Amino acid sequence: MESKTELLNEAVSLGDGNAILTVVLFLAKSLKKTLFYQLLRSHTEAVNHYVNYLGTRMQLQEMTDILQVKLSKIILQMKQFSIACQSPQKRLQKLKTCLRNHFAESKDKIFVDNFIKLLEWQQSIGTAELEGKSVIDSLAYTCEHHWNDNKSSATSPYMLAQHHRINRRQFQWVALNALAKNSSWNEIETLLVTKGWLGGKRVNAILPMDQVVIQLHKLKAPNNVLHIYFELIDDIDKRMCVAKKLQCHKEVIDVSV
């Protein structure tokens, strides 16, 4: 059994689909079905090649059996992940063990790995506020408390967003809401607006300016702040519509003039 396991490991490490399938077919003929399935359970790539092979030959019963083996592995992975998360004191250690033992060859490895990195980051911040918080909640926290940290610093919201592949739109929306809690209107402007021709302002955001105005109004931004973003709504009709909706009478007058 050991030599056959090594044979399959070698084929998988080569990454050659034909070699993997050849070895799998050999193992299917030379091993008892229970041992064959047991061996495949830890080699997802081999299972995928074998399932594809069975499908092209309409060997549906065998394909169903193999897929059940694959499903049982997923269930086991999720169960082990759940167990690892149960103890806050030993969560990181147990998750790393779980990653090594149950997700080493899984396509879900990246998600477990990212979760571990998030927990490590939360621990490094050293606040109970982040206990059990998601990536987005963590981003909101660091935007609120560490916005002015060096962008290459581990505590920087930019670094957290980069590590967890938070897209620009989501980053700007979370940052806008977090910064508004501190009335950090200048920081929001730096995030969303840049200088244009002749000292004017132009949009540096993916977020639609009408949504920005509505949200800032909801977050109690002063009128002079709202005015900046009103002027960046290119569509005059939309600007008028938003001004009327928010009962910003000065903006209604400015658009009408």
Strand order of the largest sheet: 1-2
- In DSSP terms, counting alpha (H) and pi (I) runs of 4 or more, how many helices? 15
User: Main sheet, how many strands, which sense, barrel?
Assistant: 2 strands, antiparallel
Helical content (DSSP H or I, runs of 4+)? 55-70%
SSE pattern, N- to C-terminal: HHHHHHHHHHHEEHHHH
Structural class category: mainly alpha
Subcellular location: Cytoplasmic vesicle; Early endosome; Late endosome
Keywords: Cytoplasmic vesicle, Endosome
Organism: Ranatra chinensis
Protein name: Vps16 C-terminal domain-containing protein
What does this structure look like?
This protein is mainly α and 257 residues long. Among the domains are: 1-84; 167-256, no CATH class. It contains 15 helices and two strands. A two-stranded antiparallel sheet has the order 1-2. Strand 1 (193-195) and strand 2 (201-203) form a beta hairpin.
What is the secondary structure topology, with strand pairs?
Layout: H1 2-14, H2 17-30, H3 33-40, H4 44-56, H5 60-84, H6 91-102, H7 109-125, H8 135-146, H9 157-163, H10 168-181, H11 185-192, E1 193-195, E2 201-203, H12 209-218, H13 223-230, H14 236-245, H15 249-256
Antiparallel strand pairs: 1-2
Keywords:
single chain, 257 residues, mainly alpha, 2% strand
Give a short overview.
It is found in: Cytoplasmic vesicle; Early endosome; Late endosome. With 257 residues, this protein is mostly helical. Helices cover 70% and strands 2% of the residues.
